[in-house]
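Weekly puzzle thread! Below is a chain. First person to post its structure in token form gets bragging rights.
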Amino acid sequence: MAEAAEISGIECVGLVKSCPGGEFAVGSKVAALMGGLGRTINGSYAEYTRSLGNRCCAIESNPPWEELTAITESYATAWACLFRNLELTNNQTLVIRGATSAFGQAALADFYPLLQMASGVYLTFFSSFVFGTPQFSLSDVPLQAIAEKVAAGRYKAKPSRVFRFEDIREAHRVMEANEANGKLVVRL
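Winning reply:
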């Protein structure tokens, strides 16, 4: 049975209100993901949330909040799968199935799959639960560079829909009815 905290939500972006460990200055813009958010500690569906410093990443570029929120988990996971697991390099071809999801769109941002694949398949798995652990430092993921590409319009990270916090029940209805067609963002 999956763990679930009283407040769900596995990723967020915002401004640091307090940082007892000193990793980030008060007022810094950060993205936080996983690290128990919504599972073992209260998650991001709140005005304030807390996360371990190693599960956060400073963001210095200025895409709109909704776009910044849309990249956090999806783009970090896509990057980890493509460049850590698959060790993808220039001039390789990759075909991604399910590219209409938020993850698939993030993974396709710089790739143009061909219609045919060479014989042979390489299958790998990545669990985003490892972000921020000794196995996988979140600082390995170039979230700042990704945010800059989003801000410059190179990556199209617009969420499919943005909901006000008051409309969170509708956001869940859309998600559960499989009507999302990409990333859903809840804005406080």
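Puzzle host: Confirmed. Bonus trivia for everyone else. Residues 11-187 form a domain with the Quinone Oxidoreductase; Chain A, domain 1 fold (CATH 3.90.180.10).
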